[in-house]
Design brief:
Elements: H1 19-31, H2 34-52, H3 61-87, H4 97-105, H5 110-138, H6 144-174, H7 180-209, H8 212-234
Helix pairs in contact: 1-2, 3-5, 3-8, 5-6, 5-8, 6-7, 7-8
Length: about 240
């Protein structure tokens, strides 16, 4: 939980909830007036920013929307691929592109797509952005050692967390929370080990060359390919 706390016990940098700081600020504001009060207020704001590693928390809407749209794209491609493999012998011949798309989309599982999109918007986008921000605050220098440490932490902390959360999110939507332990036992470890081969080189590139603001988008785009495996695993 420390990775989400911003270093001082706040949730993702929400310094507003530091009651002692806030009360102290109110007392200074009441006891001082005019320019002196303004300077004190500015100093208090500056100290609060420094203490929490950033200003009051704002939901990362851009990153959440990016993660949601790309999760939706990845799931749609995965579903189309699965239906193409299952139904390619039953498609009309000669094959008209419009007929093919219509036949494939007519069987689309829209609830599954909404499930993946909501996971990206509510969990993956905000969560990974907070994680990458935390890593950058802890290791701001772009050295080889720091990049390697971020990659290692990404695999041993973020990787298992993402798999645990998405399996739980999927089973919650399906009303199968009682089956979650069996799902973890059967599929979580193979999925994690398979993911190491894909995500380690992607993470190296992400931390070495991609700026913080674009990291969620970059990893979400990589997730389009990863979703081929993940969607199939969750649908077993």
């Amino acid at each position: 939980m420390g990775s989400l706390s911003g270093g001082n016990g706040s949730i993702w940098g929400m310094g507003f909830f530091h009651s002692q700081q806030w009360n102290s600020k109110r007392r200074r504001k009441r006891s001082n007036g005019g320019k002196e009060g303004k300077n004190s207020n500015n100093a208090s704001k500056s100290s609060q920013v420094n203490a929490t590693g950033g200003a009051d928390y704002r939901f990362p809407l851009k990153q959440a929307m990016t993660a949601s749209s790309l999760a939706l794209t990845g799931d749609t491609i995965a579903q189309l691929r699965d239906r193409w493999i299952k139904n390619k012998d039953n498609l009309p011949n000669p094959l008209d592109p419009k007929d093919m798309i219509g036949a494939l989309l007519s069987q689309h599982d829209w609830l599954r797509s909404i499930r993946m999109a909501s996971y990206g918007f509510l969990l993956y986008g905000p969560g990974t952005y907070a994680w990458y921000s935390y890593l950058d605050r802890c290791m701001p220098k772009q050295s080889v050692e720091n990049v390697l440490m971020k990659v290692v932490l990404n695999q041993i902390v973020l990787g298992p967390a993402v798999i645990a959360v998405i399996f739980a999110w999927n089973n919650l939507w399906l009303g199968k929370l009682s089956d979650l332990p069996n799902k973890y036992q059967k599929d979580a470890l193979p999925t994690l080990l398979f993911g190491f081969r894909f995500w380690i080189p992607v993470s190296v590139l992400n931390f070495w060359a991609v700026p913080l603001q674009a990291r969620v988008a970059f990893m979400s785009m990589a997730s389009i390919f990863w979703n081929f495996w993940l969607s199939a695993t969750m649908s077993k």
